[in-house]
Each structure stands twice: as C-alpha cells, then as structure tokens.
C-alpha cells in the first residue's frame, strides 16, 4: 500500500493517529503471506473449496445452519486440522445487525453513514469501528460486512443513508478509518459495494455505463483510498453491472484495477445473491457468499470439476484460498477468536451519542432562535414518532438495541425479509430528552397526522419543534425528495401558525424544503442512532455546539440532478431484490456527470443548491484565512482557523481545487476538523493527495504542467480565499 497517501487530508494531529494505525497492522501482517501459502499447500482440494463458498446464516431455503453458528449474514466453515477458523459474518457499518430480531439480542446502533460522514472525523470513525467490532466479537462474529463507501450519485438512492457522502477523498478517508478501527479488534472488515451501485431500482440488473477514467477519479478513488488507509481483509463486489459485466464477474474491475493496479492482497467476496456462474472465479471473484440466494453453489463442486479440465481454475483455487487465509492471519482472526459475552451497552451508547452530536448539521438559525432558552414555558413537539424514538434505515444494515425497536411499521408483505424491511425507531425519545432538559416548561406533543390540529396547538405554544422524517431502505429508492405522508404540509401549517418553529429532520439523505423560508431553524439529525433523542436535545438546548458539515449536496429539487427522472422508475416495479426477467437490463448512463458527482456537478452546471456540500452552522463563529499551497512531489495546503465567537466549537477547514490548466473545476483536496476555544486560532498543514490534482488518462494519473488555483472554503460554494501555484507536469501509473 502506498505510504504517501497515509495522512492526506487529515489534520496535523493525524500523524500520531496514522502511526498508531500502522503499528496495529504491522503486528499482525508480518507473516500473513508466508503462513497463507504454507496452509494452502497443506490443504486438500475439498478443503480449499470449502473456504470459497458460504451460506446465509438465516432460515432461508433448505440450508441447515450448523449448531452454534450465530444468526447473521453468513457462515463459512473452518478447517480444524489446520487451525483455520470458521468465518462468522454479520452486517454492517452501523453496528451488529438485528436480522429482524432472529437472534433475540440487541446491539449498539451507530448513527447512519450520512451522520458519520457529517462528522468529517476519521478519528471518530476509527473509534466507532472499534466499538462495533467489539460487539461483533461478543456476539460470536469475526467478519463485519462494514465499510459501505459507494458515492452518493443520486440522493434518491435507497442506500444513501448507509454511505458516507459524495466525495472520494472524504468517503475514502472516513471509510478507511472505520475499517482500520474494526480490524484493530481482530474482526475482518469489507469495503463495499465494489463498485458504482448508486441506486436500488433494478439493483440486480442495473448496468452502470461510465468511462473508466471518470470512474477512476470518483467511485474507484474512494475505494482506493479506503483500501490504502484501512487495508480491509475483504472487498465485497456489488449487484449491478459495470459497463456490461456483472460487478462480481467483472475482470476489468476485480483483476485489472483492484488486484493488479492496486496490488490488493485480500479476497473478493460476492454480495449475497450476486453470482451467476462458476467462471466468475476467472474474472477475480474469490468467494461466493450466501449461496442459497444464487441459482447454484457455483464455487463448490462446479469449481472442482472445472479445475480437473482447466489449469486456470486450478491456479485460481489456490490463489483464492490463499487470499482468504492471508486476511485471516493479517487481521489476527485465528489467534483472537470471538468470545460470546454481554456487550458493554454504556460504552456503545457513549460512542453512538458522540457521533450523533458531531454529525448533526445546523442548516438554518434565524435570529439565533437556537440554542433554546431553558426559560421557554410552552413547547410543542410535533410528529416523527418523537414520543417514541428516532428513525433508522431499513435492510441488511438495520441495527436495534435491547428489546428491539420502539415502533416498527411493516412496509412489505409477509415474507423472510419483512422484519428487515420494517420502518423501525430506536428507543431514544427526543420528546423525553427535551422534557428532561426543560423541567419548568410544559412540553406537549401532537403526532402530526392532521396539519390543522398541529397548527392549532402551535398557536398556543412559545415555540414548536416539528420533526420531519424520510425513511430509506436497502432495496428501494425514494421516489422524490419530499417528506412522505404529508409531512411537508404539517411543517408549513405549523410554521404559519407560529414563526418560532424549529424543524428537526431525520432523513436518510437530502430532502427538498418547500417551507424553508417560513421556519426559524432547521436541524438535520439524519438517523441519529441509539442515543439520537439525547443528541438532538443536546444540540437544541446548546449543551453541544453543532459542528456537523454536509457530506452531500442538498438540491433545491430533482430538476437539478444529472437524471431528474429516477432511472427505471417507470418500468421497474419497486421490490426488495429481484433478478428481473431473463435478460432484463436497466442501462444507466453515468457519463452524464462522469467524475463530477454531487457538488462538482453543481459547480459544472453553475446551479445553486439548497445547501452545498461542506455546509453547516455553529453557535460560535469562525474566521478562515492564510491559505498557502506548496507544490512539488508532496503537495500540501496550509490555512488558519480561528474561533471568533464566544463558545467552544469545531470547524472543518476545506480546501478545494478550483482551476487547472484544463479549466475550471471543483475538487475537495484537503480538510481538517479542528476544535477551537473562543479566540483560539490554529494553523494546519494538510498533505494533498496528488491523484486529486491529476486526471486519469490513457497513460495513468496525469498532472498537466501549469497553474492550479485553490480556494479555502466554508463549503463547496462559499469559497473565501484563493491562491495559485505552478505545478510541473507528471504522469504515473501502477506498473512497477
Ligand atoms: C447487501 C450487503 C449485505 C449482504 C449480507 C446484501 O443484500 O447488499 O450489503 O452485506 O446483503 O446481508
């Protein structure tokens, strides 16, 4: 892995952090290659192949789950005589998944990926990763199917809530830190879903069309950085096709880019139900996951049969097995087995709350209506099941605490995935947390079913806190950016009745806000996790100063998106999975935006978003100045941040490339989240990853000689100071 990238984009303090991460990895990676080779050489063919396919460890199909195997996402038996441990796999990035309550236990639900992305804090991602890995271990798992880092190309994508944002540097650094945190506890992590996978409509047959250069500079770059930072034991390939070839049978991506160019040494596991044929092995897939979801166990007997007639399969079986073994040894899974034990719920709750508090984004604060005065006498809380809990996203990443969800609303017909696809609320009531913070106030609640009723109650309140929710799930996209079930009308009615209205959003991703100009404050709380209610109240009352910054652009409306109509919505019925009809394909042309995802698209089209990438307010104020760029072989950016207000706070300094010799552009090239006391200022020096200055051309990464202009930003739209530097031309590639 390339060391020159190691610190890119982090603050000065990251050097100790990075050194600590490397040390963890070195302890365990020393002999992984030679040990894997020795074990593989001692295996029979049947043993080799037993490592290369697994079952979904849930009652589904006629597969028997061996005794003692915990209900979870997957299971691959070990090889006792060679001390190879079984792999026990659980989802996902937000904690140990609930599998619809099958295990009967609970776990710490971290806030959504969007909330984590809003912290802009690799350190916090590492901490969150380590925490959920400890819980995975305590529940008998040694593989976490975490590391969801697909870029959010479309805010309607059903899994946007699981992902970290729309920028490759930001998602790569944060995702890589989470993976490193997980693996520091001897639990293997994936990064997923390799690659593209931005929408759920027709997810089993959607074909993403995109030039390789654009992909290398966007989604692939996020994976590349995350893999360098986190060294994940496994990469999970996606359901969709890329340029006509299924992601899990895509030789160009798996063998060409991942293994050859990037030198990736771990194994590629399939997504569940994403394997179509045995020859996917020749394209670079190493393991078939959850095989009962596929048409056959392609990586069992058929692989052995193929090896008898074709040496390429024989060689691949050896390589595939070595890759699985290497990661087991590199992460120390064999020497640190999971031990079932009660989880440390208090420690988990503390991390979940810290992430929620640092990830909540204050979007609007007219007349300083927030933080709330503890003196307010009559507070009305409306909607969002705020009396019961906070919303979470659906699908395989769904996590729930002890006792299960506070509210669970089924969304699909009865079947094996009904519980996973329910609209679930964590047991952390914002209403209770607000009441606890305002003991002298009379705090009333209306569920928000009727706009008129909410408006009537709003008239009699000093202030109104109205919740707006947008549920998202794996398997389905959202149809548009509205708040469903009439919530926009409730917010408008409340705001008209009482100007002191504060909107708290619990959304999977960006939403439109037709009522924006009528309300006082807007707080984006995302899906805030196990202690979300407490975190929301802490922000509202000012016990915590908001510091989250948007990791995605909020459009005014879908008309501003590269594809205003959701591709496939007209022809594909919403469904959780579904392979479609034989031969069915849904071609989506991602060359429309190419590498210009999110804010880069808005900059290219000169469109003004509702809220830009990188944006977020605070209860204090900041001054940003002194941008200086040094060029050369190891470029870096330095800038000064100053807390010019009266409260402790944290700012995220952001440096954007705004012009190259080819013309105008917008690319985040460095960032740093810094805590500052009132009056304190700090100058930070952040390395710039040269790939962010380059374009991918036929020759590889290419920096054109000439002048490069950079800007210091409070967001991708609010660019404060500019400076230029002349760079010598340079081209490099991966071939040694
Ligand atoms: C999801 C993966 C998940 C897997 C196992 C799939 O449906 O796409 O993210 O890890 O299931 O549960």
Account of the protein in words:
The chain is of the alpha/beta class and 736 residues long. 26% of the residues lie in helices and 21% in strands. Strand 3, helix 6 (168-183) and strand 4 (188-194) form a beta-alpha-beta unit. Helix 5 (122-138) packs antiparallel against helix 13 and helix 13 (345-359) crosses helix 17. The protein is globular. The two termini are 13 Å apart. Mean pLDDT is 94; it is low at 1-28. Bound molecules: beta-D-glucopyranose. Residues 73, 91-92, 145, 192, 271-272, 396 line the site of beta-D-glucopyranose.
Helix content: 25-40%
What can be said about the biggest beta sheet?
A: 6 strands, mixed
Quote the distance from N terminus to C terminus: 13 Å
Heteromolecules bound: beta-D-glucopyranose
Shape summary: globular
The tally of beta strands, per DSSP, is 29
Give average pLDDT, whole number: 94
Q: So how many helices?
A: 18
Secondary structural class: alpha/beta
Low-confidence stretches: 1-28
Strand order of the largest sheet: 1-2-3-4-6-9
Strand content: 15-25%
């Amino acid at each position: 892995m390339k060391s020159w990238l190691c610190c890119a984009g982090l603050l000065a303090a990251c050097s100790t952090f990075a050194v600590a991460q490397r040390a963890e990895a070195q302890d365990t990676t020393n002999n992984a290659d030679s040990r894997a080779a020795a074990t593989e050489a001692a295996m029979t063919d049947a043993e080799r192949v037993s490592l290369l396919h697994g079952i979904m460890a849930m009652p589904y199909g006629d597969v028997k789950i061996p005794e003692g195997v915990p209900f979870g996402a997957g299971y691959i038996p070990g090889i006792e005589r060679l001390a190879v441990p079984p792999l026990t796999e659980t989802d996902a990035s937000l904690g140990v998944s609930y599998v619809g309550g099958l295990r009967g236990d609970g776990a710490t639900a971290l806030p959504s990926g969007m909330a984590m992305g809003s912290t802009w804090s690799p350190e916090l991602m590492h901490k969150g990763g380590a925490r959920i890995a400890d819980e995975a271990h305590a529940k008998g798992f040694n593989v976490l199917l975490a590391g969801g880092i697909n870029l959010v190309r479309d805010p309607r994508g059903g899994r946007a809530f699981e992902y970290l944002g729309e920028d490759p540097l930001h998602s790569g650094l944060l995702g890589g830190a989470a993976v490193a945190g997980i693996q520091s506890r001897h639990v293997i992590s994936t990064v997923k879903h390799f690659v593209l996978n931005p929408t759920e409509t027709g997810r089993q047959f959607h074909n993403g069309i995109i030039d390789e250069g654009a992909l290398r500079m966007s989604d692939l770059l996020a994976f590349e950085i995350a893999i360098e930072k986190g060294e994940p034991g496994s990469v999970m390939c996606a359901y969709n096709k890329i340029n006509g070839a299924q992601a899990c049978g895509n030789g160009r991506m798996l063998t060409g880019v991942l293994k050859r160019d990037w030198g990736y040494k771990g194994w590629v596991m399939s997504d569940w139900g994403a394997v179509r044929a045995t020859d996917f092995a020749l394209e670079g897939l190493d393991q078939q996951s959850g095989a009962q979801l596929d048409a056959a166990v392609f990586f069992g007997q058929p692989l052995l049969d193929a090896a008898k007639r074709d040496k390429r399969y024989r060689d691949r079986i050896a390589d595939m097995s070595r890759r699985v073994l290497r990661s087991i040894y590199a992460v120390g899974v064999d020497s640190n087995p999971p031990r079932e034990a009660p989880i440390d719920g208090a420690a988990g709750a503390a991390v979940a709350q810290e992430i929620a508090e640092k990830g909540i984004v204050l979007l609007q604060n007219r007349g300083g209506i927030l933080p709330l005065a503890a003196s307010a006498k009559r507070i009305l809380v409306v909607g969002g099941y705020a009396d019961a809990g906070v919303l979470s996203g659906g699908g395989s990443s769904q996590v729930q605490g002890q006792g299960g969800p506070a509210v669970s609303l089924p969304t699909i017909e009865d079947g094996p995935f009904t519980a996973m696809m329910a609209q679930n609320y964590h047991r952390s009531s914002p209403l209770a947390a607000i009441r606890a913070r305002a003991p002298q106030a009379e705090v009333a609640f209306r569920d928000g079913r009727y706009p008129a009723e909410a408006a009537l109650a709003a008239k009699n309140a000093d202030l109104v806190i109205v919740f707006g929710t947008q549920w998202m799930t794996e398997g389905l996209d959202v149809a548009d950016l509205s708040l469903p079930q009439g919530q926009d009308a409730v917010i408008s009615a409340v705001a008209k009745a009482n100007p002191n209205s504060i909107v708290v959003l619990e959304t999977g991703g960006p939403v439109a806000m037709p009522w924006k100009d009528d309300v006082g404050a807007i707080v984006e709380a995302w899906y805030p996790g196990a202690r979300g209610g407490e975190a929301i109240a802490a922000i509202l009352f000012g016990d915590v100063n908001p510091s989250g910054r948007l990791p995605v652009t909020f459009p005014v409306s879908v008309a501003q998106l590269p594809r205003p109509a959701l591709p496939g919505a007209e022809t594909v019925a919403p469904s959780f999975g579904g392979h479609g009809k034989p031969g069915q394909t849904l071609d989506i042309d991602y060359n429309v935006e190419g590498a210009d995802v999110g804010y880069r698209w808005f900059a290219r089209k000169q469109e003004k978003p509702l809220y830009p990438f990188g944006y977020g307010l605070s209860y204090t104020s900041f001054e940003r100045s002194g941008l200086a760029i040094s060029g050369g072989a190891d470029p870096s950016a330095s800038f000064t941040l100053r807390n010019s207000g009266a409260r402790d706070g944290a700012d995220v300094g952001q440096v954007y490339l705004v012009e190259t010799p080819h013309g105008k552009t917008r690319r985040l090239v460095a960032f740093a989240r810094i805590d500052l006391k009132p009056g304190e200022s700090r100058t930070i020096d952040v390395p710039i990853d040269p790939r962010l200055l380059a374009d991918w051309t036929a020759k590889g990464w290419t920096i054109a000689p000439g002048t490069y202009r950079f800007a210091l930003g409070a967001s991708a739209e609010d660019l404060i100071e500019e400076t230029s530097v002349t760079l010598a031309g340079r081209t490099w590639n991966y071939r040694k």
